[in-house]
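Supplementary Methods. Inverse-folding protocol.

Structures were first reduced to a C-alpha coordinate string of length 97. This string, shown here, constituted the complete conditioning input.
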Protein backbone atom coordinates (compact mmCIF):
# COMPACT_ATOMS: atom_id res chain seq x y z
CA UNK A 1 0.00 0.00 0.00
CA UNK A 2 1.48 3.34 -0.94
CA UNK A 3 1.32 6.51 1.17
CA UNK A 4 -1.78 7.86 -0.56
CA UNK A 5 -3.66 4.56 -0.05
CA UNK A 6 -2.53 4.52 3.57
CA UNK A 7 -3.83 8.05 4.16
CA UNK A 8 -7.13 7.21 2.47
CA UNK A 9 -7.48 4.11 4.67
CA UNK A 10 -6.75 6.16 7.82
CA UNK A 11 -9.24 8.84 6.81
CA UNK A 12 -11.89 6.24 5.99
CA UNK A 13 -11.40 4.52 9.33
CA UNK A 14 -11.58 7.82 11.20
CA UNK A 15 -14.74 8.91 9.42
CA UNK A 16 -16.29 5.51 10.13
CA UNK A 17 -15.61 6.03 13.83
CA UNK A 18 -17.08 9.53 13.72
CA UNK A 19 -20.21 8.27 12.03
CA UNK A 20 -20.67 5.66 14.78
CA UNK A 21 -20.42 2.80 12.26
CA UNK A 22 -18.65 -0.44 13.08
CA UNK A 23 -14.92 -0.29 12.38
CA UNK A 24 -12.95 -3.07 10.65
CA UNK A 25 -13.03 -5.05 13.92
CA UNK A 26 -16.80 -4.69 14.33
CA UNK A 27 -16.59 -2.19 17.20
CA UNK A 28 -18.63 0.97 17.33
CA UNK A 29 -17.42 4.18 18.92
CA UNK A 30 -19.05 7.32 20.20
CA UNK A 31 -17.38 10.48 18.98
CA UNK A 32 -16.70 13.46 21.16
CA UNK A 33 -16.74 17.00 19.86
CA UNK A 34 -12.96 17.02 20.24
CA UNK A 35 -12.69 14.00 17.89
CA UNK A 36 -14.97 15.68 15.36
CA UNK A 37 -12.88 18.86 15.38
CA UNK A 38 -9.67 16.87 15.07
CA UNK A 39 -11.02 14.87 12.14
CA UNK A 40 -12.30 17.97 10.38
CA UNK A 41 -8.80 19.46 10.63
CA UNK A 42 -7.27 16.18 9.41
CA UNK A 43 -9.69 15.98 6.47
CA UNK A 44 -9.00 19.59 5.50
CA UNK A 45 -5.24 19.03 5.64
CA UNK A 46 -5.58 15.87 3.53
CA UNK A 47 -7.59 17.70 0.90
CA UNK A 48 -5.12 20.59 0.77
CA UNK A 49 -2.01 18.40 0.64
CA UNK A 50 -0.26 18.19 -2.68
CA UNK A 51 -0.15 14.64 -3.98
CA UNK A 52 3.26 13.03 -4.13
CA UNK A 53 4.60 12.83 -7.65
CA UNK A 54 6.95 10.08 -8.73
CA UNK A 55 8.75 9.40 -11.99
CA UNK A 56 11.71 7.77 -13.69
CA UNK A 57 14.87 9.83 -13.28
CA UNK A 58 17.23 7.62 -15.29
CA UNK A 59 17.75 9.98 -18.24
CA UNK A 60 16.11 13.10 -16.86
CA UNK A 61 17.21 16.29 -18.59
CA UNK A 62 17.30 19.58 -16.65
CA UNK A 63 13.94 21.37 -16.65
CA UNK A 64 11.95 18.31 -17.73
CA UNK A 65 9.51 16.21 -15.73
CA UNK A 66 10.31 12.55 -15.15
CA UNK A 67 8.75 9.92 -17.40
CA UNK A 68 6.33 7.19 -16.45
CA UNK A 69 7.87 3.81 -15.77
CA UNK A 70 8.02 1.39 -18.69
CA UNK A 71 6.45 -1.19 -16.36
CA UNK A 72 3.32 1.01 -16.25
CA UNK A 73 3.39 1.13 -20.04
CA UNK A 74 3.82 -2.67 -20.22
CA UNK A 75 7.12 -2.30 -22.10
CA UNK A 76 9.82 -3.58 -19.70
CA UNK A 77 11.99 -4.52 -22.68
CA UNK A 78 12.57 -0.77 -23.27
CA UNK A 79 14.67 -0.43 -20.11
CA UNK A 80 17.69 -2.46 -19.02
CA UNK A 81 16.69 -2.00 -15.37
CA UNK A 82 12.96 -2.74 -15.70
CA UNK A 83 13.64 -6.09 -17.38
CA UNK A 84 14.75 -7.55 -14.06
CA UNK A 85 12.19 -5.80 -11.82
CA UNK A 86 8.69 -6.79 -10.79
CA UNK A 87 7.73 -3.31 -9.55
CA UNK A 88 8.78 0.22 -10.37
CA UNK A 89 9.18 0.87 -6.65
CA UNK A 90 12.13 -1.56 -6.67
CA UNK A 91 14.04 0.64 -9.12
CA UNK A 92 16.74 3.03 -7.89
CA UNK A 93 15.68 5.58 -10.56
CA UNK A 94 12.00 5.71 -9.48
CA UNK A 95 11.99 8.81 -7.25
CA UNK A 96 9.85 11.65 -5.95
CA UNK A 97 9.98 14.99 -7.73
Amino acid sequence: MDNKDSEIARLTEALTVLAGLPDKNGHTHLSSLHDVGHMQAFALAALQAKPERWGCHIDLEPGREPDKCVLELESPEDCIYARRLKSKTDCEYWKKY
